[in-house]
Task: inverse folding
């Protein structure tokens, strides 16, 4: 609480001194002597001092009170600083504990990651071995399927060759009923072969010679550019759109034995040979 200083005694003393100075001026000799003037000045000065003293005392009391308040604030702040210091020490201890736990967790995580990496490597090696074994097994199975496909394709080509030869023999017999029956039989066999991708084709008479689809039965010479087909001696085949064996033909104007066997091979085959690699290696 702010101190309350009574100012009326000081004001009363001030009035008395000023009244004494007025009496000296009123009752003193005129002109006034040096002593009277000094006494009057002393009274006025004393009154002025008395009027100032209470305010000085009050100011000093307020200054001391403010100093005490500041000191109390400093003390409270110091206590708060101590509390903050305690909190900082507690937080530091907690941080050290958390740091230790984090280090342990990081070590455990690293161990888990290393173990997972090792497991991943082991699994990858296992899968690689399994894939290699499976690939080897699949490759073996594919080779078996290809060999089986080549074998049944070989049998089918030979069968169609014999059917073609049988139809040619029927044509040479000149019997309409036999020719009609053999034609229907040949068409049925060709339709059945087309269902599995094997398509027989016959070179038409007077068709221009095509070195990619036709093979000359006579010799190894190169036919002239204007050569035309005279007769088909053996059927050509395509398997799944790929040429399997060209048709064996004779050119117009060249002599050929019409009784040549119809069973031939592809590529550079000659009359009278069996179906071999061309039928055993179909397109995959």
Result:
């Amino acid at each position: 609480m702010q101190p309350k200083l009574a100012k009326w005694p000081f004001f009363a003393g001030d009035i008395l001194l000023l009244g004494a100075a007025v009496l000296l001026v009123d009752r003193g000799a005129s002109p006034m002597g040096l002593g009277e003037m000094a006494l009057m000045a002393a009274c006025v000065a004393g009154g002025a001092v008395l009027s100032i003293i209470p305010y000085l005392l009050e100011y000093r009391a307020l200054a001391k009170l403010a100093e005490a308040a500041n000191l109390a604030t400093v003390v409270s702040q110091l206590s708060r600083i101590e509390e903050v210091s305690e909190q900082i020490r507690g937080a530091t201890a907690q941080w050290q504990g958390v740091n230790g736990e984090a280090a342990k967790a990081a070590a455990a995580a690293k161990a888990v990651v290393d173990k997972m990496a090792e497991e991943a490597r082991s699994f990858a090696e296992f899968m690689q071995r399994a894939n290699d074994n499976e690939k080897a097994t699949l490759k073996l199975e594919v080779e078996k399927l290809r060999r089986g496909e080549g074998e049944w394709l070989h049998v089918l080509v030979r069968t169609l060759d014999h059917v073609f030869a049988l139809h040619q023999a029927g044509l040479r017999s000149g019997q309409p009923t036999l020719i009609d029956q053999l034609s229907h039989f040949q068409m049925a066999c060709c339709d059945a072969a087309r269902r599995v991708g094997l398509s027989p084709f016959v070179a038409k008479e007077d068709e221009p010679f095509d070195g990619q689809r036709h093979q000359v039965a006579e010799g190894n010479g190169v036919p002239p550019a204007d050569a035309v087909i005279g007769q088909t001696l053996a059927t050509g085949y395509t398997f799944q759109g790929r040429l399997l064996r060209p048709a064996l033909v004779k050119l117009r104007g060249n002599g050929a034995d019409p009784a040549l066997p119809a069973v031939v091979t592809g590529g550079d085959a000659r009359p009278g040979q069996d179906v071999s690699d061309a039928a055993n290696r179909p397109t995959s």
In short: Helices lie at 8-27, 34-173, 176-194, 277-280. The two ends are 111 Å apart (CA to CA).
